[in-house]
Specification:
about 280 residues; D-Maltodextrin-Binding Protein, domain 2; 6-stranded mixed beta sheet; 5-stranded mixed beta sheet; 10 helices; globular
Length: about 280
C-alpha cells in the first residue's frame, strides 16, 4: 500500500511540474520567438532563416508589418519578442522619443547587425553604367534625393563620392543641402519622400534610392552604383535585430542572430538581392 501511494504521489508531482519532460514552462517559452518585420527584405530573410531555426529546435513566428512605426512599440510592450527593420540611429531616436533609458522597462537594444541596404544611384536608362561622373550631367539636370535627414545625408555623401558635389569638410552622416560647397554642374537636387523617388525616374537624370524601395518598385535592374560596405554610411546604418534589454540573453534570440550572421544566410542575401541588400560586416 505504501508503495502504491508513493508511486501515485510521484506521478502527481510529475504532472504538476512539467509533464515529466524535465523542461519548465519558462524553458519551453524560449523555444519560440515571435518577431516582427517589414516585408522586404527583412521578412524574406527571416523566412529563409526559419528552417535553420527549426533544425536547432526553435520555432520562429514571423509577423509582417506594413506600418513599420508600430514595430518598436509592439516590442516594448511585449507583443513581439524581437523586431527586424531598422538601423541603430532610428532605434536611438525611438528610445529617446519614448523616454526609455537603459534599465527602464520598454528600453530596446540591438543584439546584432545583419544587413545593409545601400542607397544606390539609379537611372531610367542606366545604359550599362557602373559609375557616374560630372561628365554624365548637363546644366539644368535634376537628381532626385530623399528629403528626410538621414537618407538625404547619405545621398549627398554618395554624390560627393562620384564628384557631383563637394561638401563641407567633416559633415559626414549629418550633411544637409546647406553643407554643399560646390556642384560640378548647375544641377538641381530634387528633394522627395524616399518611397516616392522610384516613381520619378523618368522625370530626372539620376535618382538616389533606398535599397528596400528599389526592391518594392522592381527597379533593381536600373541600378548604376551604390554605397559600399566600407563607406561611413554602411557602418552607421546596418539593419539590426532588436529586443527589450531584458531579453538580450534569450536563447532563441541568440540562436537567430547566430543563424542570420552565418554563412548560409549571408550567401542567401548575396544571391537573392544582387547587391541591393548586402550582409553587414
Amino acid at each position: 500500500m505504501k508503495k502504491i501511494f508513493a508511486t501515485a504521489f510521484a506521478l502527481l508531482l510529475c504532472v504538476g511540474l512539467t509533464g515529466c519532460g524535465g523542461s519548465s514552462d519558462k524553458e519551453s517559452e524560449t523555444k519560440k520567438l515571435k518577431i516582427g518585420a517589414t516585408s522586404s527584405p527583412h521578412a524574406v530573410i527571416l523566412k529563409e532563416a526559419e528552417k535553420y531555426m527549426k533544425e536547432k529546435g526553435y520555432e520562429l513566428e514571423i509577423v509582417e508589418f506594413t506600418d513599420w512605426k508600430a514595430l518598436d512599440p509592439s516590442t516594448s510592450d511585449n507583443s513581439l519578442d524581437a523586431n527586424y527593420f531598422q538601423h541603430q540611429p532610428y532605434l536611438d531616436g525611438y528610445n529617446a522619443d519614448a523616454g526609455y533609458e537603459s534599465g527602464k522597462d520598454g528600453y530596446l537594444i540591438s543584439v546584432g547587425a545583419i544587413h545593409f541596404e545601400p542607397l544606390g544611384i539609379y537611372a531610367d536608362d542606366p545604359a550599362g553604367k557602373t559609375a557616374i561622373s560630372a561628365d554624365d550631367l548637363e546644366d539644368g539636370d535634376k537628381i532626385a534625393v530623399p528629403n528626410d535627414a538621414t537618407n538625404e545625408a547619405r545621398a549627398l555623401l554618395l554624390l560627393e563620392k562620384y564628384g557631383i558635389i563637394t561638401l563641407k569638410e567633416g559633415v559626414g552622416v549629418n550633411a544637409t543641402v546647406k553643407d554643399i560647397e560646390s556642384k560640378a554642374k548647375d544641377i538641381e537636387l530634387y528633394e522627395l519622400e524616399a518611397a516616392q523617388i522610384p516613381t520619378k525616374l523618368k522625370d530626372v537624370k539620376f535618382a538616389v534610392v533606398n535599397g528596400n524601395y528599389a526592391l518594392d518598385a522592381n527597379i533593381t535592374d536600373k541600378l548604376i552604383c551604390a554605397e559600399e560596405k566600407d563607406d561611413e554610411a554602411a557602418q552607421t546604418y546596418a539593419n539590426v535585430i532588436v529586443v527589450k534589454e531584458e531579453n538580450r540573453d534569450n536563447e532563441a534570440v541568440l540562436a537567430l542572430v547566430e543563424i542570420l550572421k552565418g554563412d548560409d544566410i549571408q550567401k542567401f542575401i548575396d544571391d537573392t538581392f544582387s547587391g541591393v541588400v548586402v550582409p553587414a560586416k
